[in-house]
Amino acid sequence: MAAGKPDASRSSRLRTFLDSDLVYDFLHSPVALISALVLVAIAMSAALAPLLSPQNPYDLTQLYLDKAELPPIWTADGEAPYLLGTDVQGRDIFSAILYGSRISLMIGFAGVIMAAAIGITVGLIAGYIGGWIDNLLMRVGDLVLSIPTLLVAILVSAIFRHLLPMSLRDAFTPVILIISISITSWVQYARLVRASAMVEARKEYVLAARVLRVSSARIMLSHILPNVMTPVLVTATLNLGLAILAEATLSFLGVGMPATQPSLGTLIRIGNQYFFSGSWWVVLFPALQLSLIILAVNLLGDWLRDALNPKLH
């Protein structure tokens, strides 16, 4: 019987979640459903890129210059298996979009997770401890916000690139981009968590924990943190689109992913150089993919914000 209790408890929690208002709202919201399906489809196709794509765009041995600038397959000069055509290096656009989406999503998700982790940590400490520590942390946040986000990201990226040897720059570019994005976006999470933590720290259950001499770290992690996660979840969802767009912007400006490992931003930068020469497909399809991802994320984030807002129920 004892072995079956955890399974029964998990089943009960799953049933409770499936019967919740959040799931009901999701299943009855066409916008949320379509957005989620689009994101799942894009994420799955990106994850399965080696199986779905006819070419590995990162493998130079698979690029043929005699296949360069082929138009999409449905045009008169199109050629199989290049569904969406090729670029000036003979890189298949469809394959490049699948692989590029994987990089863009990975950097976006990792950037949001790192920014949320930093912001939650700073916000919990500032809101729970208060005093001069709160003032110091919030002034640091104000300093970060006073500098344009893109400028901070470019500066951080340039510093890391200067410190790294030439042979390691391309390999560490995703890490540099993740750090650049997280450094510029943690303040919003910190402010949200700080405000909620200040309210929670004055409630009776926290005061009771202090009387029982529970450690501050345990109070913040076990008692306060679960009660401040709702606004963090909404903010993280909305910021995912901004993080992906930030990576694309940095790559478009030439301080992001290299041409040998293109993300969607890099593909748009490369294609933009040949747009007026007639190779419109090189820039159009990566731009549409990027726009679709950001639109789906924003729509899903807007739905989640409304669904978790008690004033709307």
Automatic annotation (TrEMBL):
CDD domains attached to this UniProt entry: TM_PBP2
Gene3D superfamilies for this protein: MetI-like
GO cellular component terms given for this protein: plasma membrane
UniProt keyword list: Cell membrane, Membrane, Transmembrane, Transmembrane helix, Transport
Compartment(s) where it occurs, according to its Swiss-Prot or TrEMBL record: Cell membrane
Principal place of residence: membrane
Coiled coil stretches, renumbered: none
Gene Ontology biological process terms in this record: transmembrane transport
Superkingdom classification of source: Bacteria
Residue ranges of the TM segments: 31-52, 105-131, 143-164, 171-189, 228-253, 274-300
InterPro entries linked: BP-dependent_transpt_permease, MetI-like, MetI-like_sf, OppC_N
Domain ABC transmembrane type-1 per the UniProt entry, residue ranges: 101-301
The keyword Transmembrane helix is annotated on this UniProt entry: yes
Cell membrane in keyword set: yes
Membrane topology qualifier: Multi-pass membrane protein
Pfam families reported in the protein's UniProt record: BPD_transp_1 (PF00528), OppC_N (PF12911)
Family listed: Belongs to the binding-protein-dependent transport system permease family.
Protein name, as recorded: ABC transporter permease
Organism of derivation: Rhizobium loti (Mesorhizobium loti)
